[in-house]
Amino acid sequence: MNNLKLEVTDQIAVLTISRPGALNALNSETLDELNVALTEIEARDDVKVVILTGGPDKKDNPFKSFVAGADIAEMVNFSAAEARAFGMKAAEPFFKLMNMRQVTIAAINGFALGGGCEIAMACDIRIAAENATFAQPETGLGIIPGFGGTQRLARLVGMGRAKELIFTCDNIDAAEAYRIGLVNKVVAKEELMDTAKKMASKIISKGSYAVSIAKAAINNGYDMDIKNAVEMEANLFGITCSTHDKTEGMTAFLERRAADLTDF
After folding, report:
1. What's the alpha-carbon Rg for the chain, to the nearest Å?
2. How far apart are CA 153 and CA 30, in angstroms?
3. How far is residue 202's CA from residue 204's CA, in Å, rounded to a whole number?
4. Which of 32, 51, 99, 199 has the greatest CB tally within 10 Å of its CB?
5. Is 231 a catalytic residue?
């Protein structure tokens, strides 16, 4: 992979977007590599959590950019058909981040602009360094967000705030992103990866199959009416009650010991 780095340790995959000359901007090659990497990771039983982050810039500064956006140099001469194809190319790995059985955490270590904000929103959980900056600047370029921004942002922060951010192209800092619900947590930049890994380890200590089913229930039920969503949840609850982890987890609880949860 030319633009990604993957490290797997203790059931945590750290996937780093690394285009130091372009502030980790997303071009077609990077999106293709991301799709391949996530497909491979999803098939691995030894990975329970994926942490997505941005690599250092040319000056070896790890705290400048998470993903500075889509690659404008590639996009500038797009036709309408080419732009649509580019958006759909991004949709595939972004939906993998959203729907894969592993939990996905965005560790946002700097600029998360345009496509950078959009890829972070595709993850299950977002942890921002205190120096992170967020924006959807597309309308200032005469376009709209094309990697899911008009849809995911409204679902995360509400329609009114999403419209304000997209219409004005305003940058917001990490504290404001936390206040409006765009990120889950803000930490000192030096603590970002340790915080993400500690959260990942806590998630891994739970029933991995149950976590994956809970993720599916939340994702699939979000746009359902409540009656059908609750019925779907009951069906999935029944499935989890047929597993080894359910028997082990409840037995351990009654016996007042730590559970050995192994299902995935």
Report:
1. 19
2. 23
3. 5
4. 51
5. no
